[in-house]
Specification:
The complex is a heterodimer of chains A (416) and B (149). Chain A is α/β, with parallel strands linked by helices and 416 residues long. Chain A has 2 domains: 138 residues, Alpha-Beta Complex (Aspartate Aminotransferase, domain 1), CATH 3.90.1150.10; 253 residues, Type I PLP-dependent aspartate aminotransferase-like (Major domain) (Aspartate Aminotransferase, domain 2, 3-Layer(aba) Sandwich), CATH 3.40.640.10. Chain A has 15 helices and 17 strands. Chain A has a 7-stranded mixed β-sheet with strand order 4-10-9-8-7-5-6, with helices on both faces. In chain A, strand 1 and strand 2 form a beta hairpin. The longest helix of chain A is centred in the first third of the chain and has 20 residues. Chain A is globular and about 70 Å long. Chain A starts with a helix and ends with a helix. Chain B has 149 residues and is α+β, with helices and mostly antiparallel strands. Chain B has a single domain, classed as Sufe protein. Chain: A. Helix content of chain B is 42%, strand content 19%. Chain B contains 6 helices and 4 strands; from the N terminus they run ααβββααααβ. Chain B has a 4-stranded mixed β-sheet with strand order 3-2-1-4, with helices on one face. In chain B, a hairpin with a 4-residue loop joins strand 1 and strand 2. In chain B, helix 4 runs antiparallel to helix 6. The longest helix of chain B is centred in the C-terminal third of the chain and has 16 residues. Classes of the chains: A alpha/beta (416), B alpha+beta (149). Chains A and B meet through helix 13 of A and helix 1 of B.
């Protein structure tokens, strides 16, 4: 690539052109054009990602960090290139700070089981928030149970914003870690992570950020956020399933004990003693999901090749349009109306159960998620067992919001 | 609107979903069981009052979708006065109809047959069967909540 091509400005964002990168969107479901509004569950993959994964298996497949042969060299180079791409994508200072994991859930568990286990003792506290996904609740609950520590929860208000004063009040001398989501998967709230990190660090409390729902929508710079750990899932950011990344400050990662034992995470093994490998390999036992990492790297390339400011403006327009259109539907109540939101329109409609809403919409070709979204505590906070959730990605259109609204009128007709 | 959808949400089902029968606790219940669908949070309690081998009364409470509520309403209506063995036999037939799609069971199931359309909606089968599993547990004296998983 010439220097000029490398510096070329991307073309202005055009949703119709972006949609052409997603063959899966060009289909009919139950005789109707597919309207996919479930990207918070998993996003679709552009052709470039599918091609990268296929090309890896067709041309470069081999094990990494092992063979002396050409294919192993290529596979290793592709895997490490993907690590560097992910590092660049989230503003990491050093690719060694990026550990490949299965996804956000595994990233949180890794931190809980290594950093957490060495730092949290009896009587200590781990602070989370009321809007966390189960994957940022249960690993901490397990750790607290094991250690005799206490899980503290910072509340959210009626709009779905974190109550920052209450969060600050729960940062005590016993708090050993704060785990907080960047963007809520159930409400769409964007948390002021930088401010939260400042609050926590002022009291010497390290912060883990669940970035699963943030990276598809917002530019993320972990150094600017100032957090200690940042977790993400490949499949939510247009990459493959089964691959994700944990970013951690090198000083933490180096001090942490390894998690899983096995090949690749060692320098030498004898029955008396094992010497562990350097970061990030210390945390990557066993043959990794190499093709997944390559696919994630391709997703990052694809995303960074877009006019991201334009994509952001498009997404904000969709969210504002969707919010306004949904509020026109009689009997519809939005759940989660935070000041700053991304990608999520959660709602209930009259006393019609979200499952019934979802089934009728599905027959109209409209795919949404219904249920508790793996965030039962925050739904309970709003007095609900379930909501219907339309979630947006940069490939969605205003016309698809219109199809959703039209479908909701059908739902109301049916259950009137 | 698709024919399958009309078949699923028949007027009888919508009516039972809106105005469920036997939707109350049973203070003198001899058995009760809880049912939980962890995927969607549907949560019901089924109460039973047994008089020997006969179901003297059966009721339910809880929250869930139109299908699960209608299924509970229709189930409790159908089983009142039946013997335990008859109830289990009805469960077997109902299960065959909604889970295996055996529409031949419909005739023997009477009013419960309105739920036969559920088998065309694989993601909704559990909604219809949850309260039946719960009833089964209540009859068996099972303490753990019934689950469709």
């Amino acid at each position: 690539m010439s220097l000029l091509a490398g510096m070329a400005r991307p073309e202005p964002f055009d949703v119709e052109r972006v949609r052409r990168d997603f063959p899966i969107l060009r289909q009919k479901v139950r005789g109707k054009p597919l309207v996919y509004l479930d990207s918070a569950a998993t996003a679709h993959k552009p052709q470039a990602v599918v091609d990268a994964v296929a090309r890896f298996y067709l041309e470069d497949n081999s094990n990494v960090h092992r063979g002396v042969h050409a294919l192993s060299e290529r596979a290793t180079a592709a895997f490490e290139a993907a690590r560097a791409k992910v590092a660049g994508f989230i503003g990491a200072a050093d690719p060694r700070e990026v550990i490949f994991v299965r996804g956000t859930t595994e990233a949180v568990n890794l931190v809980a089981q290594t950093f957490g286990r060495t730092r949290v003792g009896a009587g200590d506290e781990v602070l989370i928030t009321e809007m966390e996904h189960h994957s940022n609740i249960v690993p901490w609950q397990m750790l607290c149970q094991e250690k005799g520590a206490k899980l503290e929860v910072a509340p959210v208000d009626d709009r779905g914003d974190l109550v920052l004063d209450e969060l600050e009040r729960r940062l005590t001398p016993r708090t050993r870690l704060l785990a907080v989501t960047h963007v809520s998967n159930a409400l769409g709230t964007v948390n002021p992570v930088r401010r939260i990190v400042e609050m926590a660090h002022a009291r010497g409390v390290p912060v883990l950020v669940d970035g699963a729902q943030a990276v598809p929508h917002l530019p993320v710079d972990v150094q600017e956020l100032g957090c200690d750990f940042y977790a993400l899932s490949g499949h939510k950011v247009f990459g493959p399933t089964g691959i994700g990344a944990l970013w951690g400050k090198a000083e933490h990662l180096e001090a942490m004990p390894p998690w899983q034992g096995g090949g690749d995470m060692i320098l030498s093994v004898s029955f008396e003693r094992t010497v562990y490998n350097q970061i990030p390999y210390k945390f990557e036992a066993g043959t990794p999901h190499t093709a997944g990492a390559v696919g994630l790297g391709a997703a990052v390339d694809w995303l960074q090749g877009l006019d991201r400011a334009g994509a952001g403006a498009h997404e904000r327009d969709l969210l504002a349009y969707g919010t306004a259109r949904l509020q026109e539907v009689p009997g519809l109540r939005l759940v989660g109306t935070a000041r700053e939101k991304a990608g999520v329109l959660s709602f209930v409609l009259d006393d019609i159960h979200p499952h019934d809403v979802g089934t009728v919409l599905d027959r109209e070709g409209v795919a949404i998620r219904t249920g508790h979204h793996c965030a039962q505590p925050v739904l309970q906070r709003f007095g609900l067992q379930a909501t219907a959730r339309a979630s947006l990605a940069l490939y969605n259109t205003r016309a698809e919001i219109d199809a959703l609204v039209q479908g909701l009128h059908r739902v109301k007709e049916m259950f009137r | 609107m698709s024919a399958e959808l009309d078949d699923l949400y028949q007027e009888v089902i919508l009516d039972h979903g809106r105005r469920p029968r036997n939707f109350r606790p049973l203070p003198d219940a001899t058995a009760r069981a809880e049912g939980l669908n962890p995927l969607c949070g549907d949560h019901y309690t089924v109460y039973l009052k047994l008089d020997g081998e006969r179901i003297a009364d059966v009721s339910f409470q809880g929250a869930g979708c139109a299908i699960s509520k209608a299924s509970a309403s229709l189930m409790t209506s159908a089983l009142k006065g039946k013997t335990v063995a008859e109830a289990e036999e009805t469960f077997r037939r109902f299960h065959a109809m909604v889970v295996q799609g055996d529409r031949g069971q419909a005739e023997a199931l009477g009013k419960l047959a309105v739920l036969k359309g559920v088998c065309d909606f694989p993601t909704r089968v559990k909604c219809a069967s949850l309260v039946w599993h719960t009833l089964h547990n209540a009859l068996a004296g099972e303490r753990r909540p019934a689950s469709t998983e």
